[in-house]
Amino acid sequence: MCGPARVPSVVAMADVFLHVGLYKTGTTTIQGALAATADQLAAAGVLFPGGHRAQRLAAYDLLGQRVGGELRGESAGALGRLVDLVSAHDGPTVVVSEEELSLARPRQARRLVRALAGDEVHVVVGARDMARTLVSAWQQTIVNGGTTSWAEFVASVRGQEGAPPGDGVSFHWRHDLLRVLDTWGSVVPAERVRLVTVPPRGTPGAVLLARFADAVHLPAGWPGEQQDLRNVSLGAAELEVVRRLNEAVGERFNAAQHRFVIEAGIRSRLAGSTARPLELPPEHLPWARSYGQRLVEELELREVPVHGDLADLVPPEVVAPGRALDDVTDAELLAASEAALVSLALDHGRLFRRYRRAFVDREGRLPTPAEVLSSQVRAGGFWLRKQAVHHADRHPLVARASDVYLRRTAPSSRWRATTRRRGRRPVAAPGGRRRRTTTPGSRRPRPSAGAGTSAGAGSVVPPPRRR
User: Fold this and answer.
1) Would you say residue 425 has pLDDT above 70?
2) What sign for the dihedral angle of Cα 384, 388, 391, 394?
3) Residues in contact with 321: Cβ distance below 8 Å, sequence separation at least 6, in sequence order
């Protein structure tokens, strides 16, 4: 008997929201809130696939970017793994947030959208006014190891004559909103591309999160009581100390070390403690306002859906007078340097405690002071011997000292010491070298004619020793 006919199940397409930046538009705040509420979102059918780390690796894989440190070698295949997580999700919404995606070229954006062809892809782009973006971007350049002064940086961004172009090209590549809209608008229908503006300075962080939640269809009330996570700014003096530290350290830090010491160490301790925050100097405000006004006009012509207010992209006209960002007094530098030293000392102490615990766990006990001292003495002696070997060919004095050392430690010197202890003395060989007078199992040589004799006939009188 035949059972009821099966009705094929229909799997609804999920809405996949790709939050692609831009840089310095509150992405850290948004990503922190998404990660902290991932379980709450999952219960509502919203997937934050793999967490932010997996999403960054996927972006690296898509762009062909390779990094060192703890992420070395992990980006290969990361895009495929992220797509697998999205495909396995049976809920209505997926949110991916990674500002590296703003660097995608059209073919790379097309590849990602095609990989998500089973779902409906939306693109969300953040935007911020030029006055705050410019100073924030310069700060990030320094925190990441740069040494460019503020004057050089702003001249390059504004394209002033004679300014090196590198920083300007990098800045506009990362912060050109229209380029990003064009790239993703070429692979996604215009109605699925939307803009989230960063509210003016002084606005609570919850406002930005509410705008983002509205753009990506998150549950009402998100993120609840979740505390904001922000990249708090350094002050002008603190940033100048970091810039000079970068110049002094140079390439002796790799990227992972610099990130640990500067970004996770000094920056996190000094941020928000300054009496002089970073503000765009007044002489650059007219340019920043003109840039924002032209951008708003273009966005209005394109009719891009906006969550927020396009007026947020034009800096306020009135700004308090102030000095150039790299105009720092000696007193300000001294105070910031002391704060940086305190930060380094605290981090060093924390690492020392961690090292001691790890050493005891592995070895069972710490070395005694006497063991440490004797080990250091031996290490010093070994180092001196290595240096002598390396420099023997270049320094005559070191060469003579090395020769004496070799004569004392060579196997032949030990043999001569043994023969002397046995009462035997080597005789002079032709050419001034000494040779053994006997070998094991051989007879003593007869004295030559005319050789002097002593009390016993046949005894050999050795030649005088050379001094």
Assistant:
1) no
2) positive
3) 282
**What is d(CA 423, CA 410) in angstroms, rounded to the nearest whole number?**
21
| Torsion of the alpha carbons at 444, 449, 452 and 454, rounded to the nearest 10 | 50
> How much is the pLDDT for 9?
42
Amino acid at 4: P
Question: So where are the chain's domains?
Answer: 15-129+148-231+300-310, 369-404
Structure tokens at 246: 């970068």
What does pTM read for this prediction?
0.71
Give 241's Cβ-side CA count (13 Å radius): 25
Lowest average pLDDT, out of 22-36, 69-83, 88-102, 207-221, goes to 69-83
Q: Measure the CA–CA gap between 277 and 284, rounded to whole angstroms.
A: 17
Bridge partners of 197, per DSSP, are 127
Supply the DSSP symbol for 102.
G
The neighbour count for residue 219, using CB atoms within 10 Å, is 16
**C-alpha distances out from residue 157 to 131, 162, 172, 175, 429, Å:** 12, 12, 7, 11, 82
H/E stretch holding 56 reads helix 51-63
Return the percentage of the chain with pLDDT > 70, whole number: 75
User: What order of strands is seen across the sheet that includes strand 306-307?
Assistant: 46-47, 93-97, 15-19, 120-127, 193-197, 306-307
**100: buried, middle or exposed (CB in 10 Å: 19+, 13-18, 0-12)?**
buried
- Answer with the residue of higher pLDDT: 174 or 245: 174
- Radius of gyration, CA atoms only, the chain: 37
User: What residues contact 24, with CB distance under 8 A and at least 6 apart?
Assistant: 128, 132, 133, 136, 137, 140, 175
Higher pLDDT, 148 or 75: 148
Mean pLDDT over 21-29 rounds to 94
Give the architecture (CATH level 2) of 15-129+148-231+300-310: 3-Layer(aba) Sandwich (3.40)
pLDDT above 60: residue 71: no
Annotate 118-133 with DSSP letters as a single string.
TSEEEEEEEE--HHHH
The size of the chain, in residues, is 467
- Residue with structure tokens 């753009």? 215
**Which strand (E) or helix (H) includes residue 402?**
helix 396-409
- State the virtual CA torsion across 383, 385, 389, 392 in degrees, nearest 10: 110
- Alpha carbons 121 and 112: distance in angstroms, whole number: 10
Closest CA to 26 of 198, 188, 193: 198
Of 8-17, 177-186, 370-379, 422-431, the range with the lowest mean pLDDT is 422-431
